[in-house]
TrEMBL record:
Keywords: S-adenosyl-L-methionine. Belongs to the tRNA methyltransferase O family. It holds the Pfam family TrmO_N. InterPro entries: TrmO-like_N, YaeB-like, YaeB-like_sf, YaeB_N_sf. This is Transcriptional regulator. It comes from the Bacteria. Residues 7-139 form the TsaA-like domain.
Amino acid sequence: MPDTYESTPVATVVGGHTGVADDYQGGMEALIRLRDDFPAETLQGLAEFSHLVVTWHFHLARPDDVALHVRSPRGNPAWPATGTFVHRNHRRPNQLATSFPRILGVDGRDIRVTDLDAVDGTPVLDLAPWFPSMGPRGEVRVPSWVDDMLPDYWRRSDER
């Protein structure tokens, strides 16, 4: 297995959120704009799906933001200290994220989406339609602190 892996973005987020925030990610529309060197036909049929799986890079993070140690989510001592791979933020080694935005439409190389928690200019490394039958199987469980931490995550910014 190689020690490194190179990846070239397939698209870029255009519009939507302009700044990084922990909450209030809902309701914002953005475009995922496919690179010019990919034919628009690579998106043919995508508009028939309701959601995407988008893998993207925390491009505003710095390499020294990576934190390979135990810490409480969002620095809140009320929540248990957990390891790096229990967090879903930019402090991960490869600074990658996965999101599941709703598809509003496809026009040429542009995919119009909502509820994408990436910011304007974010490099998109991969995208695919969401297939529910390939989602988690069986009961899904999370510790209580996850729901305690995220009640405002998908609220609209105008609901603050």
